Amino acid sequence: MAFHDDRLPPVVEQGATMGPRFNTGVLTTASGAEYRIQNHAQERLGANLASGLRNRADMDALRAHFRARRGRLHSFPFKDWSDFATARQQIGTTNGSAAAFPLFKRYISGGYIYDRLITKPVVATVLVYVADVLIGRGGGASQYQVSRTTGIVTLGATLAATTGATVEARCEFDVPVRYDLDDMDVELRTYQSHRWANISVIEVPE
């Protein structure tokens, strides 16, 4: 299995039905009391692409994409058009030696915090600030690099050698997903009208 950096057509992504999926184990005792266990530390985005198909061209593009992924075998990037960017936020502080800082998106509700890891940033949109100064991307000692594969921001040697400097970032991001089925059950209504009722994809933990 591999990650294929090949996105679906935006119209298919935009029309999909999607949202976060958590996994919680619930044990109910005879008295009615509940015990809840968080099985997964992070959410998994889930989506049904069927609602994004509008015409024969969309179906043809999806058919080719599905075959190239071999069904569930290979993962690919998916853009959740309802939630695909972070605001500028702190991702770490320099300590004189640490150079690598993972990207994440922070959600705050009622004083509670949830940090969502980002492993597939859109590299061209990543902006990094050290001590409130916008840093250039590149391989220089006073620049940074970012991995499309892991979402790790790596500071150059000069920046990493500083102590107590706030590291901030903002970016757009994709989500690594795979098809959650190996079968393509398409209903042929007319030559120009095809229907595939359930086209589920699920985020791949990384």
Description:
This protein is mainly beta and 206 residues long. It folds into two domains: 10-80 and 179-203, no CATH class; 89-171, no CATH class. It contains three helices and 19 strands. Strands 1, 4, 5, 10, 16 and 19 form a six-stranded antiparallel sheet that branches. A hairpin with a 2-residue loop joins strand 17 and strand 18 (193-195). The chain starts with 9 loop residues before the first helix and ends with a strand.
List the helices and strands and how they pair.
Elements: H1 10-15, E1 17-21, E2 24-28, E3 34-38, E4 44-48, H2 56-69, E5 76-78, E6 89-95, E7 100-102, E8 104-109, E9 112-117, E10 120-121, E11 127-130, E12 133-135, E13 144-146, E14 152-155, H3 157-160, E15 163-170, E16 173-179, E17 187-190, E18 193-195, E19 200-203
Antiparallel strand pairs: 1-4, 2-3, 4-19, 5-16, 6-15, 7-14, 8-9, 10-16, 11-12, 11-15, 13-14, 16-19, 17-18
